[in-house]
Amino acid sequence: MTPPIIGILGGGQLGRMLALAGIPLGFRFRFFDPSPDACAQDVGALTVGSWSDCDALRQFARGCDAITFEFENVPTASLDAIESIARVQPPRIALATTSDRIHEKQFFQRCGLAVQPFADVQTAADLALAVATVGTPGVLKTRNLGYDGKGQRVIRDARLASEAWSALGSTPCIYEAFVPFDREVSVVAVRSKVHGTVQFDAYPLGENVHRDGILHTTVVPARIDAALVSAARAHARVIADELDYIGVFAIEFFVADGVLIANEMAPRVHNSGHWTMDGAVTSQFENHIRAICGLPLGSCAARGAWNAMLNIVGRVPTLDDALTNSESKLHMYGKAARAGRKTGHINLHASSESELRAALTRAEGV
Ligand code: AMP
Q1: Which of 182, 263, 272, 342 to probe ligand 1 with, by most ligand atoms within 8 A of CB?
Q2: Is residue 71 lining ligand 1, measured as CB closer than 6 Å?
Q3: Which tens digit of pLDDT belongs to each residue from 257-291?
Q4: Which top CATH class is 5-88?
Q5: CB of residue 4 inside a 6 A radius of ligand 1
Q6: DSSP labels for 302-358?
Q7: Domain 117-177 falls in which CATH fold?
């Protein structure tokens, strides 16, 4: 019997780690990416093509048993080209909802999640009104195509608003209140349908620290009340059911004055879930593969008391340096160093928070 083939739209590190988790289950992988340097090609065949090349997309899809994406800015028009050939999961509604920050916030509101005040900005007049209504400080973000803090500007002074908008290309934006948060947390969850029966589970919540808009560390468990943990899991369940979601996803929240404020959702495996590769019974990558193939989910339970993930950004350490700490687990993505680019991560676990923090400090030194 030939092994089932999973096609992944996007060939970055998330695709690479999906394949690294799925190969031991007996799957084979192929990737579609506009870049000939896509790092997932180390673990499966790469088709290089543009998202608008429907012929290339159709050819890629033929022979795939399941298709997923590792990149939420895949145009939904690209899915049109392939959906009649192979099933794509997560569902396109998830992609369509989360690829536009205004639709995403409105969707959160419909699902009962709290969001910060926000306004739609299409014109310079909208911006002036938005800043007057929402107030300052606020964050102006492009509605589409933002990631890792790109496509956003903090506005502290209303007089500088139009300058910020020009800097973002005067494109459609969302203007949202700046949240003076105590912490940032994320819930990474998974939903599957096994012979028609829904399975849902969520990993312990992670507490995230960003630097320059890029995730720096995730520490698990997040130091928040059990009631907030339950609330975040319940929100994830509502959202997943509403979208009839299949696969892994993440929702990022600000915690401010003991309240969860939903910031954004990623309809894919997420950087704040990378710790699960070494710290959970089943990694987010394996559970995503299981879910899109209609297979039973593995446990999302943590294997140790404390886990952490440290991103390696903008550099490629030598293996001699990176492997100095015998306690850490290194995952490099095969990418060249570039400013602001994630090239790998380190997972750590410990039996107490203080031990974990000490190990994180050692890992940061490599
Ligand atoms: P995002 O692309 O929305 O995930 O933003 C990246 C990071 O910028 C977030 O994780 C926060 O650290 C910060 N940030 C974004 N929006 C806000 C906001 N409205 N208030 C405070 N910090 C924000």
Answers
A1: 263
A2: no
A3: 999 999 999 999 999 999 999 999 999 999 999 99
A4: alpha beta
A5: no
A6: BSSSEEEEEEEES----HHHHTS-TT-EEEE-S----TT-EEEEEEEEESSHHHHHH
A7: Dna Ligase; domain 1 (3.30.1490)
